[in-house]
Amino acid sequence: MHIPLTSSANAGPDPIRIAICGGGIGGLSLAYMLQKNSNIDVQVYEATSHFEEVGAGLTVWPRTLRILRMVGLKDGYSDLATFPPPEASNLAYDFRKSDQPEEGHVYFERQVPGGLTSFHRAHLLDLFAKKVPTKNCHFKKRLQCYEQTEDHVTLYFADGTQATCDALIGCDGVHSAVRKRVLKEKLLYEEDDSRRKELTECLNPIWSHTNAWRSLIPMSVLKAVAPDHPATKRPQIYCGTRQHAVVYPIAKHTLINFVGCNREPNEEGTYDALYALPPSKEDVDKMYADWEPDLQILLKCITTITRWPIHYLKPLPSWTEGRVTLLGDAAHAMAPHCAAGAGMAIEDSFLLSTLLRHSMVSKVTLPSVLRAYDKVRRGRSEHVMEASEYCGFIYHFVGKNEDELDLLGPEIARHTEWIMSFDPVQDVEVAIGHMMNYIFDDCRSVHKT
Ligand SMILES: Cc1cc2nc3c(=O)[nH]c(=O)nc-3n(C[C@H](O)[C@H](O)[C@H](O)COP(=O)(O)OP(=O)(O)OC[C@H]3O[C@@H](n4cnc5c(N)ncnc54)[C@H](O)[C@@H]3O)c2cc1C
């Protein structure tokens, strides 16, 4: 099925003005899916001076690939992605027991119909960005705050400028300014103490005491020392106590993406104190000093490394307030252990953009659209947030002895079952149903008064 990105929806004298705050995968995928509709005026406000190429490799599951195909990016994605090898087309990852100096072994091979595809974040960002007109992208626009009335939202940027829109979508990542404002708006009207506590706890992300160490290894460098290294062909997860490493080819097999994840031994340590120190390759060498030879080969090929603190959010009691909602990490930042954050952001964009193009949508009905999006997507992402956290514990063998490793495979499969369930396309139908109900309820209450 191919979803046309244009429609005759929202017919009216002026286009509906949608402001997107943040030009990461969430913001740009949404901008791409909305920009072809002449009845929607979409503007992207990004804090940095260009769409940033940070982040190295990412993977997505077949459910995301299906969406990219439906919105007309089949060829564009195929040109940039690395697919599983033909002899293992359903392969997701090999999970290895690796925390010993002797050669490890695969304790579980995760298969998913269609397998896992991988890419450089910058390449996917570029695929979306190229299709969004430059006149609609505004750089060095760091949102500080917004104010909303019944019929519009005013955005206030750090450079002193302002913009106005009919709806604001906060795609501004884990430290989202939009999220803080949405939750503070809710706090203004919330009198129940336990609900106030819940809202307050969601304002800021929580550091998981986990770091991700990311590096890119040229495939030619790895092949020169180990031509048949498993990571040249198949995604690998090297597992062990308190840490693991995820390794897979990207950029059409020209690079190997390395992500080492460790849990800080001192759980009392603060994020600020730790991150005052510059990241060093020696730290990573020390972390994996006694691990298996295949991993040592990879470490020898690494020259530079970056360190990423892993933050997550508690599930938010709501993403939406009036004409403002959240999308991507701003709404559901999660641990990366299910390789799901970017894919979930694209699913958010798919559902929200389909609703916004619907013929029942007008400037007046926008709050109902955002409520319907929130109702369907929030529950979905909560499930994946929980699964992502849990998978981290499984990869680190928490609560398991060495002779119990064969129990881990079924647990991983159980916590990643969502990959094949809750169909994002069927969810659009469900969300349209909610949206119609909300719109009719609003109409009824207006007629009553
Ligand atoms: C180590 C690691 C590995 C991962 N692996 C995977 C994986 O394999 N698969 C997967 O699906 N996901 C993965 N993820 C998660 C994925 O990277 C994120 O979920 C995804 O990139 C989030 O996209 P986003 O657009 O919501 O946020 P971001 O990418 O954070 O983009 C937010 C944008 O908003 C801008 N911004 C911030 N504040 C403001 C402001 N106030 N005003 C204006 N602009 C602002 C920022 O500059 C940025 O451009 C991984 C994450 C990590 C850390």
TrEMBL record:
Which InterPro entries does UniProt cross-reference here? Answer: FAD-bd, FAD/NAD-bd_sf, FAD_monoxygenase
* GO biological process terms, semicolon-separated: secondary metabolite biosynthetic process
UniProt entry keywords in alphabetical sequence: FAD, Flavoprotein, Oxidoreductase
Superkingdom, taxonomy of origin: Eukaryota
FAD-binding domain: residues covered: 18-182, 316-387
Molecular function in Gene Ontology: FAD binding; oxidoreductase activity
Protein name as it appears in the record: FAD/NAD-P-binding domain-containing protein
Query: From what organism does this protein derive?
Result: Sistotremastrum niveocremeum HHB9708
